Amino acid sequence: MGVRLMVVDDHRLLAEALASALKLRGHRVLAAAAPAAGAAELVISRAPEVCLLGTATPAEPGMFDPVVRIKRERPQVAVVVLGPVPSPRGIAAAFASGASGYVRHDERIEGVERAIMKARAGEAAVAPQLLQGAFSELLNPAAQPDDEGQRLLQMLTPREVEVLVRVADGEDTRLIAAGMGIAPSTARTHVQRVLMKLGVGSRLEAAALAARTGLLERAERPPASGQVNNSGQA
C-alpha cells in the first residue's frame, strides 16, 4: 500500500524528480516543492503520513525548526530529512528536533523508499553507514576535512556557477538563456561544460551533487529569469 507523503525542498528540480519517482512506485505525493520558510505550514495543513524535508545545511542553527513545529502540531507525521553528507552534529540535530530519519540527497530511490516505510512504521530511518561514518568522525576528527563544495566551485567559471544554480532551480535551456541574456545554443554549451567538469551525466545529477556538497549555498544567486543579464555574451 502506498504512503501518503510530501516532498518539501526549495530546489524544485530535485523535489519534482523525487516526487515523480515515488509516484511511479505507487505512493501518493501531495506536494513536490516549497521554500524552507513555508515548509512547516504546508505540512501541517496537508498532514501526510511521511514528509521528506530537504536541507542543504543540516548543522546550521535553527535549520530543523520546521521539524520541531511539525512534530508539535502534527505529531503523527513522520519527518525524514533529505540532506548532504551529514556531520555528527547534523545527524544529532535532525533526530533531536523530532525527525524519524536522515537520507542523503544522492541516495538511490530504493533507499529513499525504505526510509519512508521505516518512518511510517515508527522506526528510525537512517542508513547504518551514515551512523558509522558519524561515529568515526566523532572518534577521529579530521584536522582539515576536505571541502568538496569549495573544490568543485573552484573548477567552474563564474558563468558556469550561475548556470549550475539555474539548473538546480529547475530552469530549462530557454529560461537559462533568457535569464543570462545569451543564446540558447550558448546556454546549452555552458550546461554541457558544467556536467563534464562535475563528472556527471545529467542535470539532475549535477543539481544533486551541488546540493549535497553545499556548493549552491556558496554561490551567488543569479537574477530572476525574467531579468536580462547585461554582462554580455559568454
From TrEMBL:
Signal peptide residues on this chain, from the entry's feature table: none
An individual GO BP term: regulation of DNA-templated transcription
UniProt lineage: Bacteria, Bacillati, Actinomycetota, Actinomycetes, Kitasatosporales
Provenance organism: Streptomyces longispororuber
Keywords: DNA-binding, Transcription, Transcription regulation
Presence of the UniProt keyword Transcription regulation in the record: yes
Pfam families: GerE (PF00196)
Domain HTH luxR-type span(s) in chain numbering: 149-214
Keyword hit for DNA-binding: yes
Stated name of the protein: Helix-turn-helix transcriptional regulator
InterPro entries tied to this protein: CheY-like_superfamily, Sig_transdc_resp-reg_C-effctor, Sig_transdc_resp-reg_receiver, Tscrpt_reg_LuxR_C
